[in-house]
Structures are given as structure tokens and as C-alpha cells.
Design brief:
The chain is an alpha/beta fold. The chain is built from 14 helices and 10 strands. A 6-stranded mixed beta sheet has the order 8-7-2-1-9-10, sandwiched between helices. Strands 4-5-3-6 form a 4-stranded antiparallel beta sheet. Strand 7 and strand 8 form a beta hairpin. Helix 6 packs antiparallel against helix 7.
């Protein structure tokens, strides 16, 4: 039997209209959206389906919206997949991954990521930071450039190690700018500033970490039914206490996505199937650059889900 690994996307994949076709075609998806709306005491699904885009893009809305989309797809297809062996999610997607492992219910997870988004937004307002994507440069060179650019109280760090030659850097604006220039001198093809409200996955998120840890400790968190690969360490997590700790560590640590995918591929074994659930196809594209032989399918729209169900 072929092993399945769930993949859950992170922030940036949101767009107006997301999940609407799922809600219209699948009662299981509509039920997920309704439950999350109720848990948040806010019409999140209406914002997802109708916008406005400016409100949907706000960190505290984008995070639960992407989780809701992933959870809705999972609710539809979960019964067609009886051989899941692991899950992984990029940044906020790690919470969605714990939903697939039945460690978190989707309403509880949505409340956590909304709180996470609020805390990240606040930390970004208190100490403004920025992020930039570095393309075409090995990770070790990006790390060296960040070290060179960090001076006293001004820091730049690798934040998302997305592919062997794609790393997002994060930190104080002046240090990120210096690090970007240092990356170009080392041969980076492009350095692209990102539109973000803070320096995510960097020490600048430190003030948010303890408050998020407190929210995680209060949350109902069961033992995962299969391992979830942690962003911060790329380890396979099988217990709730460790999961809580690593989800709070994740705020200030790099997303070690390359190692996460390599570990997931080892767990899955030969012929494993990766199923990306939620908006977009970013993780499927990154996976192909990390594990070229990987078999991946992306499920975000009602048509994609229908096709998958018919083939199952």
C-alpha cells in the first residue's frame, strides 16, 4: 500500500474566493467553515469567499483562512486516504498538519492561528522588521551573508529554507538590506523584498513567543495519530507536549523546509504520495526541487478534489 504524507501551505497563498467552490459542492467543507466561523465568533468564510482582499491579507485573518481551506479539503478527502504516515506544514501550515493527525480540531486550530497572527502583527508593530527572498544562492552562503550583515542590535537571519537555492531572510530592515547586498555579491540571482507586516521566524518575534506558548498550553491538544514534521527542528513529533513547545519555538526559528521534506520522504519510503491540501501549489513545486522523484498532487479547488476522489 502506498504511503501518504499530507502537506499544508503557509501564509501568502490566500486569495479572495478561496474555498467557495468547496463549500458549494461539499457539505463536509461547508461544515468546517461553519464550525470555524462559530469558534472565531466572526464570518471568516464570508471574508474568504468575498473579500475585501485588504482584510483577508491581514495576518490575523490570512492565517486562519488558509488553515480553514486546508481543513476543509482534508474533511472531504480524509476517508479516501487510509495510509497516512506523516504530515508537514509550512509555518502556520504546521497547525493544519496537526489537524490531519487529529491532534487538533479545526476550530481549536483556527483560534490558535488567529491568536498567533495577532501576536505576530503586534510584535511587528513594536519592532518593525522585514523579509526578502534570496534566489539562486546556496543556503550556506545566505547564512554567511546574514552573519556578516548582523551588527550589534540589528539582525538578519535565514527564516525559510525553502529549497536548496531559495532562502527567505528576515530581521531588522537595515540588516536585511545589507544581507541582500551581501547575497548579491556572493552570486544570488535575485533578492526580492516581501510585503510582510513583520520579521517572521526571527528573533524579532521573541515578544510573541511566551504569549503563544500560553495559548498552546491552554488548548486541547491530543497525541498525534502519526508524526508531524516540525519546522523548527525537522524532527518527527509524536507527542502533544513536544508539539506545543516546537510550535512556539517556530515563531523565532527558521522553517527548515528542505530537511522537513527529506525527512518526510524517508518516512514515506519508495513510491510515497504527497498530498498538498489548501490553496495553491507552492509546496508541491518546492518538493519537486528538494526530492525530484517525489509523487505529489495538489488539492485546493473543488474540481481537483473531485478528480482525486474519483481516482481513489
Amino acid at each position: 500500500m502506498v504511503s501518504t504524507i499530507w502537506l499544508c501551505p503557509g501564509q501568502g497563498a490566500q486569495k479572495v474566493g478561496m474555498g467557495k467552490d468547496l463549500a458549494e459542492r461539499f457539505p463536509a467543507a461547508r461544515a468546517v467553515f461553519d464550525a470555524i466561523d462559530e469558534a472565531l465568533a466572526a464570518p471568516l468564510s464570508k471574508l474568504m469567499f468575498e473579500g475585501p482582499e485588504q482584510d483577508l491579507t491581514a495576518t490575523q485573518n490570512a492565517q486562519p483562512a488558509i488553515l480553514a481551506h486546508s481543513a476543509a479539503v482534508f474533511a472531504i478527502v480524509r476517508d479516501k486516504v487510509d495510509n497516512a504516515v506523516a504530515a508537514a506544514g509550512h509555518s502556520l501550515g504546521e497547525y493544519s498538519a496537526y489537524v490531519t493527525a487529529t491532534a487538533l480540531g479545526s476550530p481549536q486550530a483556527a483560534k490558535l492561528v488567529r491568536r498567533r497572527g495577532e501576536l505576530m502583527q503586534k510584535a511587528g508593530e513594536e519592532r518593525p522588521g522585514t523579509m526578502a527572498a534570496v534566489l539562486g544562492l546556496p543556503t550556506k552562503d545566505v547564512e554567511a551573508a546574514c552573519e556578516e550583515a548582523s551588527q550589534q542590535a540589528s539582525v538578519a537571519v535565514p527564516a525559510n529554507i525553502n529549497a536548496p537555492d531559495q532562502t527567505v531572510i528576515s530581521g531588522d530592515p537595515d540588516a536585511v538590506s545589507r544581507a541582500g547586498e551581501a547575497c548579491k555579491k556572493r552570486g544570488a540571482k535575485r533578492v526580492i523584498p516581501l510585503k510582510v507586516s513583520g520579521a517572521f521566524h526571527s528573533p524579532l518575534m521573541g515578544p510573541a513567543k511566551n504569549q503563544l506558548q500560553a495559548a498552546l498550553e491552554r488548548a486541547e491538544f491530543a497525541e498525534p495519530t502519526f508524526p508531524v514534521i516540525a519546522n523548527a527542528t525537522a524532527e518527527a513529533v509524536k507527542d502533544a507536549a513536544r508539539a506545543r513547545r516546537l510550535l512556539s519555538d517556530q515563531l523565532t526559528a527558521a522553517v527548515r523546509w528542505v530537511e522537513c521534506m527529506q525527512h518526510a520522504a524517508r518516512i514515506g519510503g519508495n513510491g510515497a504520495r504527497f498530498v498538498e491540501i489548501g490553496p495553491g501549489t507552492v509546496l508541491g513545486g518546492l518538493l519537486k526541487r528538494i526530492v525530484p522523484e517525489a509523487n505529489v498532487v495538489s488539492l485546493g479547488t473543488a474540481d481537483e478534489v473531485t478528480k482525486f476522489m474519483e481516482a481513489a
